[in-house]
Write a structure and sequence with these properties.
This protein is of the alpha/beta class. The chain has 19 helices and 11 strands. The relative contact order is 0.06.
Amino acid sequence: MNLRDELALIEDASAARPTLPPWKILIADDDEDVHKVTRLALEGLAFDDRPLAFLDAYSGAETVRLLAQHPDTAIALVDVVMDTESDGLDAIEAIRSQLRNRYVRIVLRTGQPGQAPERDVVSRYDINDYKEKSELTATRLFTLIYTGLSQYRDLMALASGRAGLQTVIASSASVFEQRTPAALAATVLREFASLLSLDIGPQTTDSGGIALGGDPDDEYEILCGVGRFENAAGGRLEQFLGPHLRAALQHLGAPPSAWRMEHDWFCAVLPARGGVRWRFLLAGAGLVAPSHQLLDLFCANVRIALESVRLNQEVDRTQSELVFMLSEAIEKRSLESGNHVRRVAAYAQLLARLAGLPEEETEILRLASPLHDAGKIAIPDAILNKPGRHTPEESQIMKGHAQIGADMFGKQTLPVLKAAAIVAAQHHERWDGLGYPNRLRGEDIHIYGRITALADVFDALGSDRCYKSAWPLEQVLDLLRAERGRHFDPGLVDAFFDNLPAFLEIRTRLADP
């Protein structure tokens, strides 16, 4: 049966939950009768609906070895005298100092209290109780174990809470680093899986997670998937989920946030502004629930991160529109209209990805490349819009726009404007060193300048200008091939032609009105 079929059976509320493991009790004594009597006295004892399981050691060395193999032992009943007169005490010191096990409750038992006086032992060794064997009746042993298990349970709860809080803090930090919805959704899924101890690694075939976004009144969009659902983005829910889980996704959710966990699945809904609700579903065997407070804390942090991403998108969108407005205003001054700067931005973004630039740099170049001709704002109209060939003097003035643009942005600190300074200064440099204004050669030209040069020439040659008509596409492509390794970075030209349909799609989509 595959996961989809198994999840469909989750509606059966009578399905048994996994049984919790027994409490481990270590009996360390060289007398076999002590082991038998202890087991007999504790027979049938259960604590928090969990039975007892016994480990037997007959020497100090064996005691340490068993504790190393079973660090989740709750109580150790340790005799003082085994192989040597201090064997038990030596074992306790090794457990605390070498194994660094501070959680196991250690009860020192002795039949010869004079050899290990209680006051001396308690002050020197980290033990939790000291008992003479003669006073450990069945009733007192029962009380001792019950009290020790209660202490161990509470200690482990505190440790789990501390570890869980550290996980939430680390998970939240990872979430807040994301700037796009898809990246944020994938990170949230992975961090939820970490909190729930769910394995969603690349080799996993029976567990995974799905993130959905959209208005609850409309069809949900699968933003991304991890683990088993890695390829779910853009698909339909019924392809991956049974009716029970689809119903849970549809109905779960009361502001400000809600989550629910069942046998083999976890679902959280986190409302965002504008009526949008994000939903995160994880499914698979072996889910372990942390405390409700930790999950609530993480959900609250995710909601803040969602709002942060939304605000970042608005800032990026505003910044992008301002850049395009400025670029288009400069283009219109030179009697050039249409979508030239938007096409250059799209070509530059695609070339940057093909060149292997990180996504953050790719986005910066998308915004900076339209400003490549910003320096033209200082060029006189008579030269800028001259329909014929420039005189040598006019040509020198016209070439000055590259340095003017570099100076305009050169003292700015924003990443986009710093990139714009590079683009403005270097988009007329040539791979063979014959460009301007600084005659840079090869990889001495910044990758931003090399990319923008190719994007700008490809678009400019295919567009009408005051001094020329648009070239036919084949003629433009022939020139790019001819200038490979001369005007343009040969690697970028190869990437361009290897992905020519993608560039032509941009050319068609953003064609001039």
